[in-house]
Amino acid sequence: MFDAHDTSWENDPELLPGWLEYSRWEELRLETEASDDDYDNMPTEWMSFLELAANGYSPQLATCITSAFILVGRIVGQELDEAWMEGVHTRFAFTGVEEEQRRIER
Questions:
Q1: Domain boundaries, the chain
Q2: Sign of the CA dihedral 21, 39, 60, 87?
């Protein structure tokens, strides 16, 4: 559903300064299966980025989630704001043929 190679998030004006450099370094470190000892040689100003990443900070993932919310908003016909999130919604579940057959046989 989402392009994992989409780099448009890199142009986000709210991206933390230095994040791109850190994330490229970390990606290369993981691709080369480098040792965790590399963190000892990491620039000290990146320590806060390492902490953020360990706590789930991911601008790329945030862009995907935002895109999903925009898509769902278009499907339901309105922006997914707080009022919509707190509202009551009808849910329809579509089961597969095999599952329906098992239900009937019971």
A1: 8-57
A2: negative
